[in-house]
Specification:
4% of the residues lie in helices and 44% in strands. It is mainly beta. The protein folds into two domains: 12-35 and 190-378, Sandwich (Jelly Rolls); 37-176, Galactose-binding domain-like (Jelly Rolls, Sandwich). Strands 1, 14, 15, 17, 22, 23, 24 and 28 form an eight-stranded antiparallel beta sheet that branches. The longest helix is centred in the C-terminal third of the chain and has 12 residues, at 364-375.
């Protein structure tokens, strides 16, 4: 039985949502697989099946609930685990990582680590969080590789090698040429497979978008944009556009562009107190500035507007903040469709994790319900 506030997605034409967890077991329904990257581990011959047992050993492989190969360590003394040598394609900054599940051990044993040697630097490691008993957690280590031969270990150590013990599982090893970790991938994740349209009908290209250290996409205010197909199929008389957005800085030309094309426009006014929204119809362009509140407060806000063929209604945080009478039907002569930019000089400088376009007019109640469904996620 569904007990939470249900999202209204009927008549959704296009949308994306980066909120799916990186450890989501069902990858077929994950709409944000993660930042473009390549896992330098060749799983055809380098999965955990054939890593070498280290010192005091491990208890062999098993299949995890993610469908991946894992290695189990059961109550073994310090300096247990596994390792493998790799030859990287080039020098530079790399992040080595794996998913761990700690099951207990003595206090002097550090539980388990991502441990590196060779690579042109001194031996180094990052330990897991021993307070997370029985939970999968990501552990990573970032280093500057100057020697292409690297030894990658998953091991635990500490205390007395004869008496201090640990129990843990490890899976999904990854080596990527980035300064931060991204969700696990077997092979490569391209710029067009990193973010998937909620309807799975439109390709989204993240080639021109920046990323946080957490791997989430962001818009830097200078040139970041998501280009969309010209014809999204939302018709000429009934449309709704909504997005969650947080201002990070001042973009080029002042305006924070959320939606920019020849028919629909939604942005934050340069004063950061108004929602600017507009439609272009057979009778011209119709723009209004709605609301009067501080929007650059470091928080996410829910922005949107609807058009029913005669009236445009604007919303901020689920509340209607203005209307405008509009005549004519939406233009069907599209010059370009963009998320995060308008024309060649107007951009967004912030985070835009959710964006949706509908070929229907959402009611006030539906707008409010969608806002309530998301607000806890954005600490509102």
């Amino acid at each position: 039985m569904y007990t939470g506030p249900k999202l209204h997605n009927d008549n959704l034409v296009f949308g994306y949502d980066t909120g799916y967890g990186i450890a989501d077991k069902n990858t077929s329904t994950r709409f944000y697989p993660g930042r473009p990257t390549t896992n330098e581990i060749n799983f055809a011959n380098s999965d955990l099946n054939n890593w070498t047992s280290y010192s005091n050993g491990n208890d062999g492989t098993f299949t995890t609930e993610f469908g991946t190969v894992g290695v189990k360590i059961n109550n073994r003394v310090s300096w247990n685990g596994l390792y493998k040598g790799f030859t990287l394609p080039s020098t530079g900054t790399y992040t080595f990582s794996g998913w761990f599940r700690y099951r207990g051990g003595t206090s002097s044993n550090n539980g388990a680590t991502v441990y590196l040697s060779s690579y042109g630097g001194s031996d180094t490691a990052t330990s897991l969080d021993k307070s997370k008993i029985g939970e999968w957690q990501r552990v990573s280590k970032t280093v500057n590789v100057t020697d292409l031969s690297v030894t990658f270990y998953f091991i635990s150590y500490g205390g007395s090698q004869s008496s201090d013990k640990s129990s843990w599982d490890v899976t999904m090893p990854q080596i990527e040429k980035l300064s931060d970790e991204t969700p696990f991938v077997n092979g490569s994740r391209s710029s067009t497979t990193s973010l998937i349209d909620l309807k799975r009908t439109v390709d989204i290209d993240l080639s021109y978008v920046s990323f946080h250290s957490t791997g989430q996409p962001t818009f830097d205010g200078t040139d970041d944009v998501i280009n969309l197909p010209n014809d999204l199929g939302y018709g000429t008389t009934s449309v709704s556009v909504f997005a969650w957005y947080k201002i990070n800085g001042t973009p080029a030309n002042g305006y924070h562009i959320i939606c920019g094309d020849s028919a629909l426009e939604m942005s934050i006014h340069s004063s950061a107190t108004y929602l600017r929204n507009g439609v272009s119809t057979t009778n011209g362009r119709h723009v209004s500035n709605n609301g009067n509140q501080t929007l650059n407060d470091g928080n996410y806000h829910y922005y949107g507007f609807t058009f029913d063929g005669s009236t445009k209604r604007a919303y901020i945080d689920g509340v209607q903040v203005g209307t405008q009478s509009v005549t004519g039907t939406l233009t069907t002569s599209f010059s370009s469709r963009k998320v995060g930019a308008f024309g060649g000089g107007y951009y967004a400088n912030g985070d835009l994790p959710v964006y949706k376009v509908y070929n229907k007019v959402l009611t006030d109640a539906e707008v409010k319900q969608n806002y309530n469904a998301y607000k806890n996620r954005f600490n509102i």
